[in-house]
Structure formats: C-alpha cells, structure tokens
C-alpha cells in the first residue's frame, strides 16, 4: 500500500461549526452534531450542496449495523452521480471514541459494494481491460474535548482499503499521544 495516498490536515473547529458550514440551520446542526458519525456533503457549488451518489447506501449500511450515524441534509438529500468506477463516500465527521468502529464500517461497506459489483459484471468483458475499482473519502476526527483536530483523506485503490483504515487509526493514535 502506498501510504502517501493518505493526506492529513490539522483542523481546530467544533463539530457544530463544521456542520453549520455545510449550509444547514444552527438548530439542525446542533441536533445532528450529537451523533457519533456524521456524513457531510462533499460537493458545494453555488447554492447546491450535495453528496456523491451512494452516500445514502453507506448511511443505510451503517444504520443496519446499529451505528450512531446521521446525514447533514436538512431537507432532501441530493446525490450527484460522477461517472467512474469509484466508490465516493465523501466527508465523514467521527468522534475519536468510535474511530475504530467507523473505519471497520467503512472497510466492510467498500468490500461488500465491490463484491456485489463483481458479481454483476458481464463475463464477456475481460478483467484485464477493466480499471481497478477506486475509493475516496475524508475522515474528520473530533477529539474528546469536542474539537475537530485532524482530517484524513484517501483516494486510491479499493484493494488497499483494509490497510488504509488501519493506517488512519494508527496516525490518529500517534497524533493523539503527542
């Protein structure tokens, strides 16, 4: 795995500030900021705030696993499809206490999604002509003081998802220990 594909940013804002920055009301932001995991929009242009297509599926998957998760969409959820063989999870706000759970849910979801994609691929297409599936996501981690301290982004091959999620946890633990 190429760990250079993981980028890290240092942030210093509250989860509520981050959610309000997505264009929702302060009341709604306060309501969802109590969730352990919050899915944030990753496409913001003009007056359109949207999520990559598939975020609803990821949300439903996490809910089926009894995760304390919410979506930062006050009215209706707008998903925009970007054509490629990439699983776009978007931005996820996570409390540090559930980082391990969130990483596990993410890796399992990506695995299950790719497994079902492979199951429905036409057999007439040679594997050698298909580009390997990709995944992209950003995890913003809120520490126990309620401040979002770090943001980790990944955009790369799906085959490395297990190692990537473990590496994100390792990076957070190293940063938290300082």
Give the helices and strands, then pairings.
Elements: E1 6-14, H1 15-20, H2 26-32, E2 37-40, E3 43-45, E4 48-52, H3 55-64, E5 69-71, E6 79-80, E7 86-95, H4 99-119, E8 134-142, E9 147-157, H5 161-177
Parallel strand pairs: 2-5, 4-6, 7-8
Antiparallel strand pairs: 1-9, 2-7, 3-4, 8-9
Helix pairs in contact: 4-5
Give a written overview of the molecule.
This protein has helices spanning 15-20, 26-32, 55-64, 99-119, 161-177; strands at 6-14, 37-40, 43-45, 48-52, 69-71, 79-80, 86-95, 134-142, 147-157. The protein is of the alpha/beta class and 178 residues long. The longest helix is centred in the middle third of the chain and has 21 residues, at 99-119. It is globular. The model is unreliable at 118-126 (pLDDT under 50).
The tally of beta strands, per DSSP, is 9
- How much helical structure, as a percent, in the residues? 25-40%
- Strand order within the widest beta sheet: 1-9-8-7-2-5
Low-confidence stretches: 118-126
Give the C-alpha Rg: 16 Å
Strand content: 25-35%
- What structural class is derived from the secondary structure elements? alpha/beta
Mean pLDDT figure: 83
* Order of secondary-structure elements: EHHEEEHEEEHEEH
Query: Quaternary arrangement of the chains shown?
Result: single chain
Overall morphology: globular
Q: How many separate helices?
A: 5
Task: Please give the alpha-carbon distance between the first and last residues.
Answer: 26 Å
Main pleated-sheet profile:
6 strands, mixed
């Amino acid at each position: 795995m190429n760990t250079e594909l993981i980028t890290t940013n240092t942030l210093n804002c509250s989860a509520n500030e981050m959610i309000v920055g997505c264009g929702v009301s302060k009341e709604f932001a306060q309501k969802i900021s109590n969730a352990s995991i919050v899915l944030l929009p990753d496409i913001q242009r003009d007056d359109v705030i949207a999520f990559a297509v598939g975020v609803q599926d990821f949300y439903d998957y996490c809910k089926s696993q009894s995760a304390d998760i919410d979506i930062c969409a006050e009215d209706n959820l707008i998903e925009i499809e970007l054509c490629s063989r990439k699983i776009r999870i978007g931005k996820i706000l996570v409390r540090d206490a559930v980082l391990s759970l969130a990483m596990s849910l993410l890796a399992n979801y990506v695995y299950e999604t790719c497994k079902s994609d492979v199951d429905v691929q036409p057999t007439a297409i040679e594997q050698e002509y298909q580009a390997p599936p990709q995944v992209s996501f950003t995890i913003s981690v809120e520490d126990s003081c309620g401040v979002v301290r770090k943001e980790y982004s990944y955009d790369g091959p799906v085959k490395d998802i297990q190692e990537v999620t473990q590496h994100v946890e390792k990076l957070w633990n190293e940063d938290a220990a300082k």
